Amino acid sequence: MLLAFLHLAARRGEIFRLTWSDVDFGNNRLRLWTRKRQVGSFEYDWLPMTEELRKSLMQWWEHRPIKDSEYVFLCLDNTAFCQEQHGKPFEYRQHFMNRLCDKAGVKRFGFHAIRHLSASILFKLGYELGVIQMILRHKSPGTTERYLRSIGLERVRAALEDLSQEKGKVVELEPKKRGRPESVSKE
Predict the structure, then answer these.
(1) Which of 49, 96, 134, 175 could be a cystine partner for 54, CB 3.0 to 4.6 Å?
(2) Structural domains in the chain?
(3) Distance CA 97, CA 110 (A)
(4) What is the per-residue pLDDT across 13-72, written as a single tens digit (0 to 9) for each?
């Protein structure tokens, strides 16, 4: 599931709603459904699958513990907290990311941070804003720019550091003497 978040830069609901009919192994693509549009109705976009994600989903398809579910990702926890959700698609995974972060010894973050991570990796690899916008499925490039703004500040810092390393040197000037001009004699 985490690989799908990272490789698709997907929203939480898009992954939680993913069904096997949305996975097109033959054409190597996935359909993600979203409500993040002006009207609020469901719309979908097809995204290509990376080879790594395709292999992982294919393996999950072959070895999934509940064969008759239409959903790709199901709640399989056997904890008391999850008993009534067992075998059903996820609605919330409040504690899941916290447990993973604690186990990894990193600062806690949520699913949406993975979406930002995907965008920042693509940006740092040099992909254009338009490509990142298509992957994030933003209708407006301004939304994508907001995602990347914090990364942009670090690029600005790097650019300024590069500028300071250029051959041009700052020459220190002697300060002008202030005060009354000396009188000139007429001799």
Answers:
(1) 49
(2) 1-109 (1.10.443.10), 110-162 (no CATH)
(3) 6
(4) 999 999 999 999 999 999 999 887 667 788 899 999 999 999 999 999 999 989 999 999
- Compare 6 and 182 and report the one with higher pLDDT: 6
Do the Cβ atoms of 69 and 21 come closer than 8 Å?
Answer: no
CA distance 79 to 84: 10
Per the confidence metrics, is the pTM higher than 0.85? Answer: no
pLDDT of residue 89: 73
User: Ramachandran region of residue 105, left (φ > 0), alpha (ψ -120 to 50) or beta?
Assistant: left
Cα 185 to chain centroid distance, Å, stands at 76
